[in-house]
Every structure is written in structure tokens, then in C-alpha cells.
């Protein structure tokens, strides 16, 4: 599946990966993740996408974003949008799909293999477009949760699917008992 001479890029849908890892009762070890991919291929770039709440004194995602930025990841953020739903409740939205799609399509000509950490079925067409450029696509998410975090159409479109649960021994760590 991975070849030592492949030019590889990783695209991480931050909120989707966080949700899947949490459902599997694990945290991600991003340093071990980078090392794992570097052992398997020529890692060109590792992107991490997340929406951030601006103006808050403390944001729980800020320490992670800072660490990733200093440790080999290209971090892409945008502010969340606040809106009121039909029931009058205040909600926030921070979809990064367009940013992931644009970056993946722009970088595709320089790659042999793309790894997408997301189970979002909206990415099926993006995967198909990248494959049309001759790039293999591996999707990492999980079927081991109820409901599964991977959309069936995305899993079927990918050249390969790896279950995040099976990779936790390589770059995960069990959630600590004190973690919320």
C-alpha cells in the first residue's frame, strides 16, 4: 500500500479525526503519526485543518494548533461562524471541506499518494478527482464505532481504507482517566 519512493501528503480533517479518536477512547500522538508516515514514504506535507473560536481567552484547540505548527504540520484554520438555528439556539459552524479540497487538488500534481483523515462522504468527489490525476488515495477513519465514522461512499471510492482503530497501536494512546 505504501511505497518508500512515494511522494505522500497527509490531509487531516481535525474535527472529524478528533471525533473518531474520542469515540475509540484514544488520543492521537501526532509526533508518532508523522514518524510512522515518514518511515513508509517520502512525506512532502502534513496538513491539519480546524476551525477556531476567535476572541476567547482560552481555546481548547489553541495548544494543539500551536504544537502542530511548530512540529512539522501545515496548520490551516479559519474562524467559526456563529448563527441561530430555527429553534432560536446559538450554534457554531466551522466546516473546512473547501480548504481541504483546494489544497489537495493544488498539491496533487506533485504527489503519488494522498492520505485523508476523514470519514465525511462529501469528500467522495474530491477523492475521485485526485485519483483522476493519477494519485492513489488512502482514507483513514473508523467503522468500529456506532454509528461508523466513515461514509460508505467515501470508503468505496478510496484506493485503500485503513481503520483508525487498527492504527492506534502505532500512533494513538488511550485517553487518560482524568481527561474530559
Automatic annotation (TrEMBL):
| Highest taxon of the lineage | Bacteria
Residue ranges constituting the NYN domain according to the UniProt record: 7-164
GO molecular function annotation:
RNA nuclease activity
Short name of any one Pfam family annotated for the protein: NYN
Listed CDD domains: PIN_LabA
**UniProt protein name:** Uncharacterized LabA/DUF88 family protein
Record organism: Brevundimonas aurantiaca
Amino acid at each position: 500500500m505504501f511505497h518508500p519512493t512515494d511522494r505522500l501528503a497527509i490531509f487531516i480533517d481535525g474535527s472529524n479525526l478528533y471525533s473518531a479518536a474520542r469515540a475509540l477512547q484514544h488520543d492521537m500522538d501526532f509526533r508518532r503519526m508523522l514518524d510512522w508516515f515518514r518511515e513508509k514514504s517520502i512525506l512532502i506535507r502534513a496538513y491539519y485543518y480546524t476551525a477556531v473560536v476567535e476572541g476567547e481567552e482560552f481555546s481548547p484547540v489553541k495548544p494543539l494548533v500551536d504544537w502542530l505548527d511548530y512540529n512539522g504540520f501545515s496548520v490551516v484554520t479559519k474562524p467559526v461562524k456563529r448563527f441561530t438555528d430555527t429553534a432560536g439556539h446559538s450554534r457554531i459552524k466551522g466546516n473546512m471541506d473547501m480548504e481541504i479540497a483546494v489544497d489537495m487538488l493544488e498539491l496533487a500534481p506533485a504527489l503519488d499518494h494522498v492520505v485523508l483523515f476523514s470519514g465525511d462522504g462529501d469528500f467522495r468527489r474530491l477523492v475521485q478527482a485526485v485519483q483522476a490525476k493519477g494519485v492513489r488515495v488512502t482514507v483513514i477513519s473508523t467503522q468500529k464505532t456506532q454509528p461508523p465514522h466513515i461514509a460508505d461512499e467515501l470508503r468505496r471510492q478510496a484506493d485503500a481504507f485503513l481503520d483508525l482503530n487498527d492504527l492506534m497501536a502505532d500512533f494513538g494512546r488511550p485517553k487518560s482517566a482524568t481527561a474530559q
